[in-house]
Amino acid sequence: MGRILRPILMVFALAGLGLTAMPLRAQTVVKSPNVTAQLMAEHASVRPGGTLWVALKFKIRPGWHTYWRNAGDSGQPTQIQWTLPKGYSAGPIVWTAPHHHRVGPLMNYGYADEAVHLVPITVPKDAKPGTMVTLKAHGMWLVCENICVPEEGRFSLSVFVAEDPPAPNTQFEATFTKARQAVAKKSPWTATVHRSGKNVLLQLKGAALRRDKVQEVWFYPYQPGVIRHVAKQTPNFGTKVFTLWMTAKKQAAGKPLQGVLVVTEKLDGGVVRQAFAIRALPGDAAVAVAGGGGDGSAGGATNTAEGGAAGSDGGGLTLLMALVFALIGGMILNLMPCVLPVLSMKALSLVKHARTDGAAQRRHGWAYTLGVLGTFALITAVLIVLRAAGEEIGWGYQLQSPVVVLVLAWVMFVIGLYLAGLFEIGGRIAGVGQGLASRGGYSGSFFTGMLAVVAAAPCTVPFMGAAMGFAFVQSWPVTVVVMLALGLGLALPFLLLSHAPVLLRFIPKPGPWMERFKQFLSFPMFGTAVWLTWVLTLQAGDVALIAALGGAVLIAFVIWLMRAANGASGMARGIAGVAALLAVFAIGGMTQYALQNADGATARGANRTAEGTTPLFTPARLEAARASGKAVFINYTAAWCVTCIVNEKGVLSAAWFRPAMDKAGIIYMKGDWTRRDPAITRELKKFGRLGVPLYVFYPAAGSSLKPEVLPQILTESRLRVAIGKYTTTDPQRASKR
């Protein structure tokens, strides 16, 4: 394994240098088919210790809308991730008052035509006058009409640091003035909230609102799930007290109600829309009982959580059960097509030394195990930190990055070349890998364990999903323990083999067959590289295919140069080194060019409403289908998920499946998690899962049935039973549900 690592480490270390040396594209405007987004600064300069206000402004396609901090019944708020110079810090988005958009049975909160997101940037006191600083932002937003399209853009804004008072950017002055007028003001009234059953009464004392002047009043809560957004809000105008009746979505007695009250009035100067920040303290429930002004009949929205899912194998687990499930799931991972060749390579090394040093074999087994456990610990730590920071991620999240998929495809390609016997690398390559070589080969076992974990990332197997779903809703020590149990399960077969030489007696004695078997193992690696390249094209478009294939050719060229230069004269080695360096920089350039075009490819792909005849999942589409009286079956999948592909080809593509679904009146949707999709991640979390595949039957709205999760390995018989249970074409059966 040490021989494999040396070329991999050198090529990809140099490739990293090539990538970092290429300049990133700086821009303040990003255009998509639906949104033109612009990052702008209120002033042309900043002073040390001051505050610079910036805004991310959207010009939205007519008929489309983006979302507020609470999106309502469906949707996702805009997010901005900042990369700032040392000492600079960005505050949260200061949201302007939203509008409400009714879409079928759903009510969404957001913006049409235009949206401005204000953000304060704090400048450190030691900022050096006379310098330019660059503020970088990664914006992510969801824009919807009848379909929803996740979009994103990367922005870069250069600002001058000066001692003098900052001069305003006159071209943006009107934008900032208008946005500040739309931000919620501090409420001048004393607010209380009274709750009883389905009634929520917001009471404002001292509000001099006149019935003949007010055109509309609407309350937008900060927290989702507090009121039924789609239900009617009924105002009551008094001389000194204003009340607003709403319908509760869930009981939340004893807690303050916070949000924005938007009042649209017709005054002498025309129609004026004002927003007020409300924090209403809990009041007397009897006040809410007395009125009953909430209109519960105006609704129709449903809650997809519905109190849990029937049949979810993540529900009701204890810690002991989760540990056992994790151990079994880890052992099953060894049978996956990407992991099996890695395990076979190590097994071959044990066979080679089976009749020599038993202690050395055991040390190799423990080195491999430590590599597996160390990598699992690292991945778990990253997951915990990112989830604590509010990121919606799960198992296999790293494969949602085109960069990771591209590099992993190249790694598999290089390993395939090595296994095929097309190159052997000596131990004297400019010092690269000498540290590994000096440790007698145990480092090779350690890094093989790391490679096994990376290769297992696209897979979720029986028992594994339930264990991981349990782990990531517990405290972090429990999460770590369960994930390490999963890693131990992955390492256990090789560890047992290294401690039980008697098992090796059933394998033929070392001989020429070992070299042939090693060469045979190269083909699964080449196949994996081809498959990952296909996944890359789905994520980043056809341009990425050129980078992947061209990069593979250049990597093979670099390896050939390294081999050709071994033992050559000093001048020949120098020429080979320069040529190899140029090839590495070419790899970096091709990669960056492909990834810069990835955003456009993603936006184009996200505009699809269906894959073939299968609608793609969005929360709004799911709720609309259920509200129409149909049950829905969703296949949450990803192109890089081996188990998903096996199930789709073996069961979901069978000739009987679609006719059976149509006959039962069940809508079939696909949730594609190949690239990052927070809405899908939230659905996985809702059912106690951290990764795909996930197969869920959702009943029609109003049904007494609960959503049901099917096993990760689908069978025709289990699927037919679920179809019969959720059929919606028999009126008598449907009425009893």
What does this 3D model show about the protein?
The protein is an alpha+beta fold and 737 residues long. The protein has 4 domains: 2-19 and 311-600, no CATH class; 32-181, Immunoglobulin-like (Sandwich), CATH 2.60.40; 185-298, Sandwich (Immunoglobulin-like), CATH 2.60.40; 608-735, Glutaredoxin, CATH 3.40.30. Strands 13, 14, 15, 16, 17, 18, 19 and 20 form an 8-stranded mixed sheet that branches. Strands 1-2-4-10-7 form a 5-stranded antiparallel sheet. Helix 4 packs across helix 11 (476-499). The longest helix has 31 residues, at 358-388. It starts with a helix and ends with a helix.
Radius of gyration: 30 Å
Distance between the termini: 59 Å
**Average pLDDT for all residues:** 77
β-strand percent reads: 15-25%
Total number of helices: 22
Shape: globular
What is the count of β-strands? 26
Poorly predicted sequence stretches spanning 5 or more consecutive residues: 1-26, 285-315, 425-440, 599-608, 731-737
The helix content is: 40-55%
What's the domain count?
Answer: 4
The main pleated sheet reads as: 8 strands, mixed
Q: Summed up, what is this model?
A:
By secondary structure, this protein is α+β, with helices and mostly antiparallel strands. The protein folds into four domains: 2-19 and 311-600, no CATH class; 32-181, Immunoglobulins (Immunoglobulin-like, Sandwich), CATH 2.60.40.10; 185-298, Immunoglobulin-like (Sandwich), CATH 2.60.40; 608-735, 3-Layer(aba) Sandwich (Glutaredoxin), CATH 3.40.30.10. Helix content is 42%, strand content 23%.
